[in-house]
Every structure is written in structure tokens, then in C-alpha cells.
Amino acid sequence: MSSPTNSRPARKAVIPVAGMGTRFLPATKAVPKELLPVVDRPALQYIVEESARAGLAEVLMVTGRGKAAIEDFFDRTPELEAALEKKGDQARIDAVAESTDVAQVHFVRQGEAKGLGHAVLQAASFVGDEPFAVLLGDDLIDARDLLLEQMLAVQAEHGGCVVALLDVGAENIDKYGCVAVDDAPQTGAGDTDSAADTVVRITGMVEKPKKEEAPSSLAIIGRYVLAPEIFDAIRATPPGRGGEIQLTDAILALLEQGVPVHGVVFSGRRYDTGDKLDYLKAVVRLAVEREDLGPALRPWLRSFVGDLPPEGASQA
């Protein structure tokens, strides 16, 4: 089976948000991890804004038990807006309204946590017969780096599926889904932009391989642009690693059927909010570049770092 260039562009995005966020307990006992603040906005708002910037203004969030707060966040809050208006606080009114105005957000419940592939399958009726994007909430992509836009362009040109890749080094590849690639770089979409990331044709995929068995050091990170054929592939995919239905297994099945799968090797700014240490780094990195926070935060950071004891020294 082959997948020619699609006549219809992608218009919709799917964001799975059903995870329990156990790495951030006890904070996530009552608050969904996707709503933990990154500076002054939830991580999830960054993801929705990225989708809208790329032209995907219809977003489906696949939720689960205990995630009602996410629906509340993207809903209007007339009482709060009225209270702020009474105070004449237009800046905060605009900030509150921004989360509801940025995109048209829909919700569906996953029901059972059977893996990423199963979560994506819940979007079948929402997506229909057209390509779509999947954005995972742990990966924040800097707004200045147009990764999703390039992936959409590659998919529009080549058809099939496109995944985002990051070179994590051979020593870390066993933590990720890994790809084998054709040695010849692909030409076409994005090549007119000198800052475009490398596009490769994927020939194989494996989930969390042993370091010595990994076909490359290129890891799949949390951005996908998928052909609608992925839904049939997921339905035919048995549970894999961890007893879950893996999205990578379904993409591999399409690849084996002749559907083209490409990767965009990302070289820009990525902030990982799925790990406590990396979450703290993401907050600092984003805050220092804010016009309202950076001028005061940067000198404080320099002073703070200068006062730190040498590595290994005891701290009072």
C-alpha cells in the first residue's frame, strides 16, 4: 500500500492528557500534571498555542478520570472576568481570556489507560479521513522554532506519517522509541528555509532498544503528523511493551505496508516538563527570556550561582 501526497491539509490536532502524572506526586494528587504552571501558564496552554500557530485551530484533548479541571481551564469564567473588569484589570482579563480564545477545544474520555495508541484511537471520529497532528504535553517546543509547521509541510509533500526526532546520543537511546533511517537526507518541504531541520526517511522503528542494539541515536519525541490510516493500524495492533497499545507499533505496521514515514530531526529549543529536574530547568529558561521577568531574574541568577558552594562541598 502506498500513501501519495494528501489532497487535504491537516486541520486538527489531538493532545492526549489522560496520564496520572505520578512523577509529580503529591502535587498531582488533585491537580492534573498538564496544569502545573510553567512560569505563569500551564504547560498545556503552551501546547495548544503551538497547535494554533501552526494552523491547527481545532484541538481534541483525550482525557481520563480526574481531569475535569482541564475542561474548566479552557472554559470561560464570567464571574472571574467580571470581578477583574470591576477592578479595571484589563491585562489579567486578556490573560484569562487567552486560554479560551486561542483554539476551539473539544474533549473525549479515554475510559481505560491502554497506552498512547489507544488514546489516539479515541480521536477517530473527530479526525475523520484526513491527516492530523498529535502533540504530547511533556515536550514544549519554543515558539521561535517552527517544528510542527515543518512537519506539516513534509507530510503535505510526501504523504504518510511524520515524526519528530531528536539525537539523544547512544547512551540515552534505551529510554526512547528509536528509528532506523535511510542514509540519504530527503529534499523538498522546508528546504527553502536555511534554518530548517533535517528530513530523513525512516526505514524501521523500535521501542526502547538496548543501547547495543539501537539502529541509531535518533529518538522519537512528542510530535507526530499522522495519516488517517493510522486508526485501522491501531485497531489491528496488539498490546506491546508494558501491555499497552503502542503508537510506534502502529506506525511501524503502516511502514511495513508501504506507507512512507519521514522524520524531522529537531535542532531547536525543547523544554521537557515530564521530569522534575527538567521541569525546573524549563521554568528558569523560559522565565529568563520574558521581557517582564528576565531583566530582574538574570542578575539574581548570576548572583545566586556565584554564591553556590563548589560541587561536592557540604551545604549549611
UniProtKB/TrEMBL annotation:
> Single Gene Ontology BP term?
UDP-alpha-D-glucose metabolic process
Q: What class of enzyme is it?
A: transferase
List the Pfam families hit by this protein, alphabetically. Answer: NTP_transferase
Catalysed reaction, written as an equation: alpha-D-glucose 1-phosphate + UTP + H(+) = UDP-alpha-D-glucose + diphosphate
Q: Which keywords label this protein?
A: Nucleotidyltransferase, Transferase
Q: What is its EC number?
A: 2.7.7.9
Which residues does the UniProt record annotate as the domain Nucleotidyl transferase?
A: 12-284
Q: Which GO terms describe its molecular function?
A: UTP:glucose-1-phosphate uridylyltransferase activity
Cross-referenced SUPFAM superfamilies, in alphabetical order? Nucleotide-diphospho-sugar transferases
Q: Which domain of life is it from?
A: Bacteria
Which family does the record claim for this protein?
Answer: Belongs to the UDPGP type 2 family.
**Protein name as catalogued:** UTP--glucose-1-phosphate uridylyltransferase
